[in-house]
Specification:
mainly alpha
Length: 259
């Protein structure tokens, strides 16, 4: 049986090494931003892949989230609480947490894993090595366009999802506690704060970079064979999900002290 201390030490070393490599990849991508005009067609293509193909899944996930919030909040309100409070609770729940967090996890499975599978297939078939032979930087050609596209596409998808979730929350509240549209709007108007919108945009932007970056990293470091590609896809989702959950707390805490 292995010494537990040795096992923990080796796993910690692998963890720190992997995150160090991801950080290096991030800085290489930032340096590659100077080539954005050169790779504009690839950026537009990646934006279409991320935004347009994710839209149906986002609609389903956001609708389910809104319906669940409407039921859960409505059933917890007692007779002494004005019904219009639910509008504000749904709005702030969606903007501050549920929208950016749930959508980031959903898109991590849809987009991040897809990128890991795509680049993993290119890695095991030596297409990435062929790019290097032709003096094409894989970071500039493969990673940077996806990161830039994600910086725009993910916040757009999250905003769209939040609108769908809020409307779904109203429908659910209407059938649960018979909340009128005027009452729902009254609750949202009283609870609305522009900083909540900024917080949602900040979180969605950072989360988008995180799961796309992990997808690119694990795809470009995939091992040989179909098993290696499958493993890289799983690792991309798991690591990005953990990073998103940790960052969600960190960002929320920082914004709380700032605002």
């Amino acid at each position: 049986m292995r010494n537990p201390v040795v096992t923990v030490g080796r796993n910690a070393a692998r963890f720190m090494t992997a995150y160090g490599q991801v950080t290096i990849l991030l800085f290489q991508t930032l340096v590659a931003f100077r080539k954005i005009p050169t790779y504009l067609p690839q950026i537009v293509e990646q934006y279409s892949n991320i935004e347009r193909r994710s839209r149906p899944l986002v609609i389903v996930a956001a609708s389910a989230m809104g319906f669940i919030l409407g039921i859960q909040i409505g059933t917890q309100m007692d007779a002494a609480t004005p019904k219009w409070y639910e509008g504000g609770l749904i709005l702030r729940s969606v903007l501050l947490e549920m929208g950016p967090l749930i959508m980031a996890l959903v898109l991590s499975g849809r987009v991040g894993s897809g990128i890991a599978a795509e680049l993993g297939a290119m890695q095991v078939t030596e297409q990435i090595d062929a790019l290097r032979v032709m003096a094409v930087d894989p970071v500039e050609f493969l990673v940077m366009p996806r990161i830039v596209a994600g910086l725009v596409a993910v916040p757009v998808l999250v905003i769209f999802a939040e609108l769908v979730a809020i409307l779904s929350g109203y429908v659910s509240a209407y059938f649960t506690i018979h909340l009128s549209w005027d009452g729902f709007m009254k609750g949202m108007t009283r609870a609305f704060a522009i900083t909540d919108v900024f917080a949602s945009l900040i979180k969605s932007t950072i989360f988008g970079v995180v799961f796309i970056l992990f997808g690119c990293f694990f795809g470009m470091t995939a091992k040989r064979g179909a098993k290696g590609v499958g493993s890289s896809t799983t690792l991309a989702f798991v690591w990005s999900s953990v990073a998103i959950l940790v960052l969600d707390y960190v960002i929320s805490a920082v914004l709380f002290f700032i605002w």
